[in-house]
Fold these 2 entries.
Entry 1:
Amino acid sequence: MAVYTEVTDEELSAFLDTYDIGTVLSYKGIAEGVENTNYFLHTTQGSYILTLYEKRVREADLPFFLGLMQHLANKGLNCPLPVSNRKGEPLGRVAGRPAAIITFLDGIAIRRPTAQHCAALGGALANLHLAGQDFGMTRPNALSFDSWPPLFAQAGAQADTVSARLAERTGRELEALKSVWPSGLPSGVIHADLFTDNVFFIGPKVSGLIDFYFACTDAFAYDLAICLNAWCFEADGSFNLTKGQAMIAGYQAVRRLKSEEVEALPILCRGSAMRFMLTRLVDWLNVPPGALVKPKDPLEYDRKLNFHRHVRHAREYGLDA
Amino acid sequence: MAVYTEVTDEELSAFLDTYDIGTVLSYKGIAEGVENTNYFLHTTQGSYILTLYEKRVREADLPFFLGLMQHLANKGLNCPLPVSNRKGEPLGRVAGRPAAIITFLDGIAIRRPTAQHCAALGGALANLHLAGQDFGMTRPNALSFDSWPPLFAQAGAQADTVSARLAERTGRELEALKSVWPSGLPSGVIHADLFTDNVFFIGPKVSGLIDFYFACTDAFAYDLAICLNAWCFEADGSFNLTKGQAMIAGYQAVRRLKSEEVEALPILCRGSAMRFMLTRLVDWLNVPPGALVKPKDPLEYDRKLNFHRHVRHAREYGLDA
């Protein structure tokens, strides 16, 4: 939760003058989002989110993210639509930061999803994959396999201060993954960060997917693996097979997995657990003094990784044989 | 800016079931307010603020604050209206905290008010004083004159670590105020904390007064003195007479000051500067480690206090002779 950059009423008014969305009636900083600053914005024409992009987001990537959201929204996917300014551009600048105005989406993020939520999420994920297929831009996944050894090196020997022998465990696993990591799987736009706080529901239905700032071009099944990790484990660390079944069935009802994707799923789950363990580990070891954001526990993903090491077939995640 | 208490979707749904305001469509923590936790809440019936009262607000005072807002809103004043639950009560409990749902007010807080804003604020303040006259409850001002010596004692010798000879200066001033502090002035409900962040404007008009959690029964002119301090000084510490004139004229257009209030105004300005200097000083010296809220500068009010010590007549604040 954080507002990193404060926007004064004068700055906001001047910024809104470059748009055709009416005059401001109200704006309030939102205590959400660990990467960017977000304001809830109410104007004479509607409700919006004003996002200021902070330093963790590369400015050069913004045209991809904003273009993708426009593409997906125009395809009918429930995601925020970046509003173009009077020059026809979705990206501007306010209070010294790159900034965009996106449409406000109703819906609430569910902390403890049921199997029904997982089924709906699976369907929404597959719809995202299909809707992104004719998007013209690409962006390599900056947090794919190749980035993991350098992240691991960044943590270094300090890893063991977080958990005994974590360094050894992780080094061995990276070595093991190297020889089995799949390539050539069906690929396209993936969200790559579809945790529960990035999915809005109204009742049992998905009303919106948000936060596309890790979106990239990668294997569709890797996105599903990220979601299995994020949605189908219980607080006690156990994998909920009913939720896995629901999610995979929800996905396949929209987009059928190919046999090579089914085969790769256990490895992809291990890899995505590795990716989140490593970024959390580096964040955990580098909390700046006075930080507003509590770092997330890397060991949650160390335990998930251990679970996946013992999975032999996607059936164990709930795939219908 | 802070969300001190997180509310899960399950807790929120259960809480909303005790109200008749529809089902939740969206809720987001707001990065505003240093005393309480606030959520923007959108339901099928409208927009609201959900406030969770944190430890700095005495629970026993909540019926006064909420009753006052209901009274003022019913009188047509632009302030949030606490919504009663199905039992007819404006106060409930969620996530372990006392909580209320109040109506959402449009408008933006102006950081750098113009004389026109000051005039509008003066009028709104007088309207508040008149509208509160037949409110049935009273609450003594917990931060009136009697509270200042104990606050000063709390800071003690540490005061001088903030500014050279601040302790001596403050002790002398408290002594001086004691013999001249007025009593028997026209009194009633005052807001007592009407800083710019608690006043919303749409264009040049006041669209709402918020944050009544320091409201109490005290002299009307003391409330005006608080506003002169909060609104009519420039960033460089100078008093802007044009703004003072506008505010006092705006106030008097609605409620004429009595001669004893005019006479007391310089002392009341000194006293209200003392009150904010002291509370800021104590906060400044007691910032908890990892605090999310940056303390406000007590010396801003030390300088204002010094200005007021040289004022002989309310004309110097802009009162029409």
Note: The longest strand of chain A covers residues 24-30.
Entry 2:
Amino acid sequence: MNFSALERLDQADPLTHLRDEFVIPEDTVYLDGNSLGLMTHGTQARVAETTAQQWGQDGIRSWNEHGWVHLPAKIGDKLAPIIGAQAGQVICCDSISVNLFKTLSAAFAVLDARGEPRNQRHQVLSTADNFPTDLYMVQGLQQLIGAENCELVLADEAELLADLSKHIHAQTAIVMLTEVNFRSGRRLPMAEIIAHAHAAGALVIVDLAHSAGAVPVELDKWQADFAVGCTYKYLNGGPGAPAFVYVAERHLGSVRQPLSGWFGHARPFVFDAQFEATDGIGKMLSGTPSILAMSAVDAALDVFADVTMVQVREKSIGLAELFLELLEQTGLAREFDCISPKTAQQRGSQLSFAHPDAYAICQALIEHKVIADFRAPNYLRVGFTPLYTSFTDIGRAVARLAEIMQTRAYTDPRFQTRQAVT
Amino acid sequence: MNFSALERLDQADPLTHLRDEFVIPEDTVYLDGNSLGLMTHGTQARVAETTAQQWGQDGIRSWNEHGWVHLPAKIGDKLAPIIGAQAGQVICCDSISVNLFKTLSAAFAVLDARGEPRNQRHQVLSTADNFPTDLYMVQGLQQLIGAENCELVLADEAELLADLSKHIHAQTAIVMLTEVNFRSGRRLPMAEIIAHAHAAGALVIVDLAHSAGAVPVELDKWQADFAVGCTYKYLNGGPGAPAFVYVAERHLGSVRQPLSGWFGHARPFVFDAQFEATDGIGKMLSGTPSILAMSAVDAALDVFADVTMVQVREKSIGLAELFLELLEQTGLAREFDCISPKTAQQRGSQLSFAHPDAYAICQALIEHKVIADFRAPNYLRVGFTPLYTSFTDIGRAVARLAEIMQTRAYTDPRFQTRQAVT
């Protein structure tokens, strides 16, 4: 491994200084930011201040004095430029799952308001290998309101892309897709899909779980109707951090959603018995948000203030291409079947490799302080997070992988036992 | 004020040592634990450890190594004895609002499974002055599935109690009540109401927002069907901390809920496209929970380990009765109209007083470091949290209130301006 060449790449990297903002686990190459992003020093300090001072000393007054009540919208406005949205269309709340339920219901309400007969346009189109929770939420809504009002239809991802017209048609109410596939890293051409869906009279919900903070997203330009996304992956908001939801400005006036908790009320502290939605994106809120969780997300996003998503994308591609190149150089490419698209522009910020021993290899890598992850049935996933992953990291990771394969360290029986969370 | 008598009460109090477990804001009498409970030192340390070590150093591996994946159920089992439930029926997740949506839908599913024709039994009975978010969630479900399937019916609280049979009848599907009224502190006779509802063929959802950790709750003994509750009030879980949900064991086998996210799946890491609920209370989970928020709740509950709810209740009544007695002694009782029940057993752990200047008086109290709160239209609320409120605190609070009223300090114009959160 030519580490001096890699160090030169790091020196030339315009984002290299951002690594110092993060707590990097000791002696570790962390390639799992697509599952749980690392913590910034600023986030750690903010959480400490939120406990010691805000909760500990200022107590209940902090809802006003420290702006707790405004955090969901404040974070939304910080997220907006990262996902190509004007301010006022994004808010931070709940989980992706819960936000999908809101947006699915809201999208149906938009179609109802258009006078679309539900019995003629009631299908929710998604892909069979979308992240399961997305499908489960449609199944939950379907069970609640009946398949005649909401019916999940699954397409094969490749077949969908090969013939959009065949799959998106007059019965399609909602196209619900994740831009970047969690297994393969494949990035869907959302602008094209959205244009096609709109032409067919359908609305589109985009799941940005593996996009936000990783690739340049252009929700407004694409004319997406709704989007949801995750802050704990590339946005480094902390384990299980609250998700976000986007509603296009054109829908905000009339849209409604059924998880109409008091935080979405026009005047929550009047305590009126009748729900009246607040104007704007606030109506997507439901119950009281966790302030510890919100504070962490708010602080985590500060590192994006002086970064463009174009810079992030450029380095992400650089890291991934280097990884592939080093696999070639070391001969590992023969063993690891890359199931991600060969063309960088068709990928998100990860590479996935099929290998019969993927699980054990992943465990062996982790023991050697290279943190990747495994996804069923047999994929090793490697995530690239340009804010803190260096080119040298990539070299170290591949060198350790080569050693593990050469010594067959992964065959150790203790790497075979599956853990609760894989 | 006879402070030496109050100090003797504190010395004789079997819970007095627990005050040291808490971070008490400097020089402050905190009587707002019914809105946001104080932080324990243990919770602060746990949050610091969760950031510095678990997230910061151990990253993604913490889902297994630090048991993140088990936190919702672990916390549920800690909560169970506090609310009179056997383990395995309680889980920590989401907000009360979201959990109400789950339990409302689940209760209707139970009735469907019993073969109850929905068009004959579709009403959700609640009280007009229940906490608004409870009503809003029914309204959201009603809008989604139609008033013929779910119709909110509101009764006056006093009228309901005066004649249960008149209000709970063959059209009543679900009785949804908050045990302790957030405004008045009135405690409803839940055992009696539940028996009555069951006799009429209805199911019962109990909101324990102002009960859990404050009064002895006996969900199993009462035969409650479902319950939800809050961990950020008397349970000290932190601002906006995740809520909990209880499902009676007899319903757990067959119940389903529509927010069927991947954390409620039988095998979430198999990533199957078809939802299959896990056995037991885990099926009430939806998306990925915030681990910072969960860790805080988990640590906060430790202080309850060696305390019985009977002890908590006894001291709570002692504090409230002392407050009332001191209002009498100081003549303040003439100005402050106590709208809470006169009989201690009919109250939760708060007292509410109507006063035309309640808002300004509350602000003046806060400036004098007595933290109470205000609820529209004109109530001053005072909460008693036996784990950290002392009898001396009560004396200091009443003395400061007397001074504010005597000097008319509350008439200062700066106390008139309403804040975002009241």
Note: Chain B has a mean pLDDT of 96.
